[in-house]
Amino acid sequence: MKRRAEVFRYVGLDVSADALVGHYRLDDRDFIERVTFEGVGTLETPAVRAVAELWYLIAGLSYYKAGAARRVDIGTTPLGDRGRALLHAALHDGLGEFAYRNDLPLGDVVIEGGSATERCTPSVDAGRALIPFGGGIDSVVSVAELAGRLERSLFIVSPASGRFSPLEETAEVTGLGVVRATRVIDGQIIRNDDSFFAGHVPVTAMITLLAVVAALASGRGAVVMSNEHSASVPNLRWHDADINHQWSKSWDAERLIANAVTERIGDEFVVASFLRDRSELWVAQSFAHHERYHHVFRSCNRAFAQAREMRATAWCGTCDKCLFVNLILAPFLSRAALRKIFANEPLSDPARLDQLRVLVGVGLDHKPFECVGDPDESAVALAQVSRLDEWADVTGLAELAALASPQRNFDDLLTPEGPSRVPAHWLR
Predict the structure, then answer these.
(1) Do 85 and 260 meet the contact criterion of CB atoms below 8 Å apart?
(2) Is the Cα dihedral 366, 369, 375, 380 positive or negative?
């Protein structure tokens, strides 16, 4: 029987020329996380430290979750109102899926401590940006669409176990420079002690803040995220709260992170998602035109396991992510082109039918805990594919499309929707 811890403490943050080291304590157990940077100047500046403190607070959730302590003591870590709002949301919303899967509501958690913050105003170049790059269609589209608008470099985070091959190969196709960070997670978490709770943490929020650190340490004035509109759509409702696997990619998280960064270093630095007002179908349409990436990109999460020996060397063709990417690309690429990309065909696989039903909102289960579009997007994509002659032999597609009831149509999803924080100079 796993037992909740009593207190999780933020013990201290060390900042050296090229590394951040966070120290944490869960009751009587200590944890350390280290992130080492390549391709930047020194981290030992007031502005970098100010943002690094935000990263330190959010990164701590990787260790907090092991015991889900009832008290969180941030000690003397500087924390303003906006930073506190980010930490509160990251704990309660960013760990929403973790809480749901462990049947462990976190409404009783109290956050204590903190000291006053002082704003540091760095000198940055608004025309130079870092783009966190994951090797999938979203970040590829951001890189491609921003050509000629910003001076772009990629930001890649790798685990201590080594770089991810498909990500590196896709990054090489861009021809852009790369700023790197290597994240060394405490081995106790990697080994997953039987007494620990386990589950999803807001990794994208952590990566976003590491990207801001790297950008500041190299004089850049922006971090370009690649999180689209439907990342804000929750998977389900539980204990009167929305549970969203993609919370740290959501509109709410983007605003909270941007506001917390502004509180620390002023509003000259921009953190925004280039794809915020775009659908997954819009992204897929754009990606279809960038053929030089088709042979190399990978969105299947089984290629990105922490342990090198667990990493898949090709699209698995069976997970929800493979199925979803196959689905949204099918309206824009020929069936033959898709087979060449995937080396399999999830859409025509009868074993994937129940998964497809869930993706389009016909299945009895909630949207998968994966980075996939909302059911309406998937249903629209399925309706479009089911009308294509080359898919006519897969009779299950038309039958399922007839059962789905999307609220929008295909053309609606190819136009901007919802708010965006993208500045005008990114769009010129």
Answers:
(1) yes
(2) negative
Q: Residue holding tokens 């869960």?
A: 26
Query: Is residue 428 pLDDT above 70, yes or no?
Result: no
DSSP symbols for 274-313: TTTT--HHHHHHHHHT-GGGTTT----GGG--SSGGG--S
Beta bridge partners of 31: 24
| Residue 277 banded pLDDT, cuts 50, 70, 90 | very high
Kindly state whether residues 237 and 220 are assigned to the same domain: yes
The reported pLDDT for the residue numbered 365 is: 81
Q: Concatenate the DSSP letters of all residues of 170-216 into one string.
A: HHHHHT--EEEEEEE--HHHHHT-TTS------HHHHHHHHHHHHHH
Map tokens 């500041």 to a residue.
216
262 and 287 co-located in one domain: no
| Both structure tokens of 130 | 């870092």
Q: How much of the chain is helix, strand and coil, in % rounded to 5?
A: 40, 20, 40
Asked whether residue 155 is domain-assigned, the answer is: no
pLDDT tens-digit readout, 283-339: 999 999 999 999 999 988 887 777 788 788 889 999 999 999 999 999 999 999 999
Distances (CA, A) of 407 to 108, 374, 410: 38, 11, 10
Decide if 259 is inside a domain. yes
How far is residue 175 from each of residues 9, 166, 170, 172, 246, measured CA to CA in Å? Answer: 43, 15, 9, 6, 29
Tell me if the pTM is above 0.90.
yes
Q: What confidence score (pLDDT) does residue 310 get? A: 79
Burial group, residue 417, by CB count within 10 angstroms (0-12, 13-18, 19+) = middle
268 and 306 both lie in a single domain: no
Percentage of the chain modeled with pLDDT above 90:
91
Domain shared by 86 and 60, yes or no: yes
pLDDT digits (tens, 9 = 90+) for 26-54: 999 999 999 999 999 999 999 999 999 99
pLDDT at residue number 324: 97
Same domain, 253 and 312: no
Parent domain of 231: 7-117+176-273
Cβ-in-10-Å burial (0-12, 13-18, 19+) of 107 comes to: exposed
Angle between helices 251-265 and 203-216 (to 10 degrees): 30
Nearest Cα neighbor of 427 from 286, 289, 283, 274 is 274
427 pLDDT higher than 80: yes
Q: How confident is residue 234, by pLDDT bands cut at 50, 70 and 90? A: very high
Measured distance CA(353)–CA(249) in Å, rounded: 28
Please tell me the total count of domains within the chain: 2
SS3 label, residue 363: coil
